[in-house]
Amino acid sequence: MSKDLEVQYTAGLKAALDRGYDVLRDNGSALDAVVAAICSLEDNPLFNAGKGAVFTKKGLNEMDAAIMDGSNLAAGGIAGVRNIKNPIKLAKEVMLHSGHVLLSGSGAAEFAINQGMVMTPDEYFFNQERYDQWVEIRDTNFTQLDHKGDNLKGPAVAPNPDHKFGTVGAVACDVHGNLAAGTSTGGMTNKRFGRIGDSPVIGAGTYANNETCAISCTGHGEFFLRAVVAHDVSCLMEYKGLSLKEACDVVVKDKLVKLGGEGGLIAVDAKGNYDFCFNSAGMYRGMRNSAGEEVVAYYGL
């Protein structure tokens, strides 16, 4: 990417780190830190979530999100929602106040209104670049995973190692050792049939358990759903005693690759160990901890 664009992305990632870490520094919960960080990314049109959500086959912006509390395994998710300023906040409301785990479409919208969520008009989500990219492929059966590039997906097109995934996510470990994970996305450009990826599905794209880890995934969602990636990492830690890094490597760099899936994840455990694991050319990522370490990176390690 250009120098100017890298400056913008770096600023966006650091702003999200600031928002999340401010919560943790004030002894706030991992759950609240995750929401704060993801809201920052949802409000930034550079990222394919919230304000930056891509366009569907019908020229709409449909968003998915999920959140999970590792301290009690409570979780909430929403799929196919429109006009919600911060989908991750709605996912948290589902977790806390709906009695359910996953709401979709018009039902999720009705719940959002009942909960007094901030609604925004279609114009809020309009982005000329994303719109132009959708116009290029709207009369085809292709979907596009990268809202900044030109790599297309069709029924017979193999994954391309050069494309970037727009899903945003955050994981956190707080002062009490509690974990939380959240994920938010606008999905695929030109997606059809009410397609839902892995992001809002607990265990596939999002998972947190204090006994193991907190995980948020990004990539070709169909493969992450089939591999139940986020929960599989947790299971390898729980049942086989693998470390966080070992478990992530097995799932992302072995199991997922064998399926043909591309992407990655961010992870943290209750001891504060973290991992960025991906099988793609790179992954936009950032980390900050109480030891004073900070990481912002894009390309392969």
What order do the helices and strands come in, and which of them pair?
Layout: H1 3-25, H2 30-42, E1 63-69, E2 74-81, H3 87-97, E3 102-104, H4 105-114, H5 128-137, E4 143-144, E5 152-153, E6 168-173, E7 179-185, E8 206-208, E9 214-219, H6 221-227, H7 229-240, H8 244-259, E10 263-268, E11 274-278, E12 282-288, E13 294-299
Parallel strand pairs: 2-3
Antiparallel strand pairs: 1-2, 1-7, 4-5, 6-7, 8-9, 9-10, 10-11, 12-13
Provide a concise account of the structure shown.
The chain has 301 residues and is an alpha+beta fold.
Written description of the protein model:
This protein is 34% helix and 23% strand. It has 301 residues and is α+β, with helices and mostly antiparallel strands. The protein has one domain. Helix 1 (3-25) packs antiparallel against helix 2.
Structural class: alpha+beta
What does the oligomeric state look like here?
Answer: single chain
Helix content: 25-40%
Please give the alpha-carbon distance between the first and last residues.
17 Å
Cα shape: globular
How much β-strand is present in the residues? 15-25%
How many independent structural domains?
A: 1
Essential attributes:
301 residues; alpha+beta; five-stranded mixed beta sheet; four-stranded antiparallel beta sheet; 8 helices; 13 strands; 34% helix
